[in-house]
Amino acid sequence: MKGNPVNCESYNVKNLKLDEPLERYLKLVNGHHVLDLGIGQGKCSVLLARQGFNVTGVDLSNTALEACKNVPNLTFVQDDIRNFEIEKNKYNLIISRCVLHFLHKDDVHEIIKNIKEGLCSGGMVYISVFSIADPGFKKRELNSDFDKLDNNIFYKRSENTYMSYFTKKEILDLFADFKTIMVSDEFSLDLSHGKPHYHGIIKYLGRKE
Length: 209
Description:
Elements: E1 4-8, H1 20-25, E2 33-37, H2 43-50, E3 54-59, H3 62-67, E4 74-78, E5 91-97, H4 105-118, E6 119-130, H5 135-142, E7 146-149, E8 153-156, E9 161-164, H6 168-174, E10 178-190, E11 197-208
Parallel strand pairs: 2-3, 2-5, 3-4, 5-6
Antiparallel strand pairs: 1-4, 6-11, 7-8, 8-9, 10-11
């Protein structure tokens, strides 16, 4: 395993809620091993750990490290999710919410391949990514700092970073060998940071057969 594991021990979960698809279908998860790729502020991982799942959260951010301190059943690994080595056939649930769109799609495809291999038989995956309906898509088309590449990928020259946007068909094709539990293509208001703003979001929950 790459990165530096840190045993996470308190986190105020008041007002936190799981993403609706996870909350609705959590009872279908058969086992307790969970991997969260891009843990961020720890929303999903902390709540799942509090429910008794053994959660490993991966993120480069120090904010993520602070978020998961003192949470039983939650181990934080500070690493780039592109480099993190996912143990094969280990996890009952792998999550990556609102993270993959910040990468080039070549990296996304490799991560999804590793996710599939990391899930045990019957394991489930939950991801959420920006769709081409996201307002940021048009803004980046008009921003001279961004180069639009093939397949709805943008390159930001000033920061040497990428942003990718997806279609529902694209996500379903990536998981064509999985049983789809749910998929949605939403346009929703984001109240989690900054001023209220909208995002186009694709959410996918599937099971490895």
